[in-house]
Amino acid sequence: xxxxxxxxxxxxxxxxxxxxxxxxxxxxxxxxxxxxxxxxxxxxxxxxxxxxxxxxxxxxxxxxxxxxxxxxxxxxxxxxxxxxxxxxxxxxxxxxxxxxxxxxxxxxxxxxxxxxxxxxxxxxxxxxxxxxxxxxxxxxxxxxxxxxxxxxxxxxxxxxxxxxxxxxxxxxxxxxxxxxxxxxxxxxxxxxxxxxxxxxxxxxxxxxxxxxxxxxxxxxxxxxxxxxxxxxxxxxxxxxxxxxxxxxxxxxxxxxxxxxxxxxxxxxxxxxxxxxxxxxxxxxxxxxxxxxxxxxxxxxxxxxxxxxxxxxxxxxxxxxxxxxxxxxxxxxxxxxxxxxxxxxxxxxxxxxxxxxxxxxxxxxxxxxxxxxxxxxxxxxxxxxxxxxxxxxxxxxxxxxxxxxxxxxxxxxxxxxxxxxxxxxxxxxxxxxxxxxxxxxxxxxxx
Length: 446
Hints:
Oligomer: single chain
Order of helices and strands: EHHEHEHEHHEHHEHEHHEHHHHHHHHH
Radius of gyration: 33 Å
Mean pLDDT: 89
CATH superfamily of the largest domain: P-loop containing nucleotide triphosphate hydrolases
CATH architecture of the largest domain: 3-Layer(aba) Sandwich
Structural class: alpha/beta
CATH topology of the largest domain: Rossmann fold
Low-confidence stretches: 7-11
């Protein structure tokens, strides 16, 4: 293996290089949108400037400059450098490379910088292959990923890597990139400021997408012509939303949606709903979340919430998209404007925790069924009081296991229908107190 494996290994230079490649920054100062990350004295800048690296992962959305930073490292390092694509590289190739890196360390006392593009596409066993060589110092791992490394990079490897976060590029940053790229256009083409603004707006924070769109528009232009916003809009028809239904953004948007409903902000909730639907999210996934919200965040403050949610579930299933959008809008508004209570969830967690701790305790015999003579003889169902046979349909008796105290898991909130539930609970409690007082008086008489 040669000292360096370049990103562009070719016997002859290509003649039709994409604009995104031609406009790629040639030095660190030309990288736009990550001034803090690459500022003088920052950790990443210091690594590059001193050519002294420890393993790290570049995490950010598509088109934010991860590969560009890796290429600049390749161009300026004195270490051996190898670039891998997790999409194309097989585990056998990785193992061969690791052994060569180990031999290089012993033979030349040189580390190998290994850049792995889309490292999240390597499975656990493939990622494990890097671990002993990172630990021994044979390689410095440089990963690039669009997915949250907390979920996609194995913990043993991630603990040995610093994570640098590249934020989605602002429209201002993308406009600067486009202005520089216009100089690379053929046939002396120009672009007015409004055209660049529209291109930046439609890019979804993806610099590569913005450059590809600029190149797409330029192909239909004649020499010396100026690209306008109208021509940009005519040429670009695809959606600009950045959304990955399997990635972190999927969970970020549904989280923003639920928190907006929980915070009783129907306007923000509708915005996030529209973001998800317009990006192609499964409407039934959103519906399942709304059903959960009806019980988790509204609960018994409005018992109609779950009724509405289940009706909308059937509507969405029956209508499909795009007709189901109004049904989802209706439920979103209903839940966002409903009184809020999480008392049912709190009650469940309290009961669940006690059940886990006391699951070995037997059911009290007096509330067990006794379908056989033997069970009756053993005391099953003995002393059970049938509530309907008593005044007010109530007779106090213990329902908890004998060895634990009676607990109160559910406490109604002061909102919505739970005010009525509190009134009911107070009534049952007063009956209980009266009966216990009578029982105590009877015991005293004895």
